[in-house]
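Structure tokens please, single chain.
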Amino acid sequence: MNQLKLNVSLLRRKVPNLTSAAKTVGLRPATVSNLCTGKIPIERAEVRTLAALAELAKCSLDELLIKSKDGEMIETGIKIIDFFAPIVKGGNIGCVARPGMGQLVVLGEVLTRVDKKETCTIAYFQNENGPGIDDVLHAAEIICQTMDDVFQEAVSEGKKRDIFLAMDRSVIESGEYFSLQEKLEEQNIQPVTFFLADPRGEAVDENEPYGPLESLWQFDAELISRRYYPAINPIYSTSTILEGSYVDQHHMILQQKAKKLLRRYRELRFLISANTNANLSQDDKEIFERGQRLEAYFTQAFYVAEEFTKIKGTNVHLKDVLYDVQRILNGDTDHAKVDKLMYIASLPEKI
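Here you go.
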């Protein structure tokens, strides 16, 4: 099934100051911004809005609206990613984190887990250095020094394998990213899955640091303070693949239930930290305790960190994650100590 999306790379190339230019044709900058980031689906856009954007870019509506295939989920074996914010094959995956939150470790881990026969991994971090960059570069099969090198390698390898391309956010700021996407589409090099990281941590303070994303991984300082890794926020991290009929309905329903539980658990956690004598109802006690266990279950040992943690990395299939989450939500683990769920793979049948 095909769906329409806005050709953001074309818009930004032809209209550099897009939100400012939108005012000149009577469009609200917020509307244009939300269309570009995908917050407003293209099918909900007014015809006059699309016509005005085409006028600004001096292009036809056929050029402005392009077809994209529905995404295919790429399973990583990382529980919190596959369950809450799966990778969309051929999509854009963005990390939002302050420095030191582990976004580069996660990215390095994802690249490490790739089947190299099926997928080529390329890294371009020419404009960045510092802690964590080496994790990504070490995991990548090909390290590029220039954007021209990235294009040439992607074209060469893309004829044989899928491409995972890891880059830093400076390529968004320079516009090179959108130009590269367009050139790869012209060469019919697909699917290319882009992983965008922000080592400087500036993305945290911006509304649309990367433009449209298929998957967003939002990192959480509170999880880090308690040494819960990977510190990906399960509530604010999202994937478009879970917003439609692209995955199993059971997965979607479980994810919604888990997020609802974790939202309330976090409210209760804040309440308890502010008032140690908080008098919780029996229902809230149950939610709090199950939230603790669910949060602990989503910690996971990484292969790239084995040397430092002395814990063997684990890989957990999504079907096992779904089964485990259902058990936790059902209360099958209510009797287990929370620390027994920390950094395990799948739940033991008896715990």
